[in-house]
């Protein structure tokens, strides 16, 4: 958030400002997904860009590794991954219809190395 406030290229930003409906593959019900950030920014070529940004641990953006035992922890990881995939798909469609970008940032993108 400090980055957004101090970056001259970012014209506007908001946190969890709107929701995107999605159908959960776990319970087959429609839920509301609140993306972490929306930013409006000036691109290098001078045009204006709009992006929806989700921040997630990298482990939640990849399918869990198959295990020989289906423990509660493993089932919870699978469920979380499937729900996240449904959210991301809904966000991609939402953004495509509005000509927004959609980005998922992980610790690889946020941590200084």
Helix content: 25-40%
Describe the largest sheet: 4 strands, mixed
In N-to-C order, the SSE pattern is HEEEEEHEH
Helical element count? 3
Q: How many individual β-strands?
A: 6
What structural class should be given to the helix and strand makeup? Answer: alpha+beta
| Averaged pLDDT | 93
Shape: globular
- Main β-sheet, spatial strand arrangement: 1-4-5-6
Stretches with pLDDT under 50, minimum 5 residues = none
Rg from Cα: 16 Å
How much β-strand is present in the residues? 25-35%
How far apart are the termini? Answer: 20 Å
- Number of separate structural domains: 1
Structure, described:
This protein is α+β, with helices and mostly antiparallel strands and 113 residues long. The chain is built from 3 helices and 6 strands, in the order αβββββαβα. The chain has helices at 2-6, 72-98, 107-110; strands spanning 10-15, 20-23, 30-33, 37-42, 48-55, 101-105. Strand 5 (48-55), helix 2 (72-98) and strand 6 (101-105) form a beta-alpha-beta unit. The longest helix is centred in the C-terminal third of the chain and has 27 residues, at 72-98. The model has no long low-confidence stretch (mean pLDDT 93).
């Amino acid at each position: 958030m400090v980055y957004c406030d101090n970056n001259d290229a970012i014209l506007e930003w908001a946190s969890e400002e709107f929701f995107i409906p999605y159908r959960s593959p776990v319970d087959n019900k429609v839920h509301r997904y609140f993306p972490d950030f929306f930013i409006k920014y000036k691109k290098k070529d001078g045009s204006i860009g709009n992006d929806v940004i989700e921040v997630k641990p990298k482990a939640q953006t990849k399918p869990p590794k198959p295990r020989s035992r289906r423990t509660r922890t493993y089932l919870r990881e699978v469920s979380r991954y499937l729900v996240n995939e449904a959210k991301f798909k809904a966000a991609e469609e939402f953004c495509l219809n509005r000509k927004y970008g959609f980005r998922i940032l992980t610790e690889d993108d946020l941590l200084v190395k």
